[in-house]
Amino acid sequence: MISSFKIDAMTGKLSHIDNQMMNANIAYISIDLTGQYLISASYPHHKIIVNPVSKNGDILKHQYTLNGFPNAHAVLIDKTNRYVLVPTLGDDRVYQFEFNVNSGKMKLNDPPYIDLNKNSLKKKVGPRHIVFHPNGQYIYVIGQFDASIHLFDFNPKTGVLNEKQNIFTLPVKYKYKRKAAADIHITPDGRFIYSSDRVSSTISGFEVDAESGFLTSIEVIETEKSPRGFNIDASGKYLLVVGELSNEMSIYRINKISGRLIKLKSYLMGINPNWVEIVTFP
Q: If both were cysteines, with which of 20, 186, 219, 269 could 193 make a disulfide (CB 3.0 to 4.6 Å apart)?
């Protein structure tokens, strides 16, 4: 089920609008730039689903479903609203779609996907979450199983990706047998990018080269236990991270010169918090 809410711009309070039953369990949702369509990724049912959205914010009955996308984990829509990218953790791919805003329909691009695991000897990647650089030219994908950030050039004319960097997010002397990278976000000015890992309970920071998009490691810090979700505010000054197993949220100030994180305070949350969404009104 997907629930929709109205946000009070003065207080931030939510008012429930309606619920819409879905034909699959949903892991991630995105709304296209016109606000007319909601695109969902179903991790357990391997589907991508499109629902119309009413002017009042109601999620209407699903328009159509695309099947056969193993463990679809996120949905990213480009700045032109013409292309949709979906990382599928189950087969180590990022699928590339053309999006028709007039009909809300999606079709596979040419080529239909980018394979993050071309070499069969390579360990599984598990592409999980995905973000655009503010300039719209670079895309960063976090691999859950390899705990690496994969950098791609994005062609805005064709909607096609081209991988050019793969950087490990954890310390060289990583002491755990398992990795579980979770979330990834970039500052609004595009200077710094951060990722989280749930096993080591860490946040990793990187500096972004403005000319190439390449990443250079800044630091890895311990944070809330199992940081499944975090986000960066619109000013680019603060990073908020929730611990799924600590039931707390920590707030950090981002050093605008170095990109290093300075912890300010922790707050008690509900049980098993796993996402942070920051809403900014004009």
A: 186
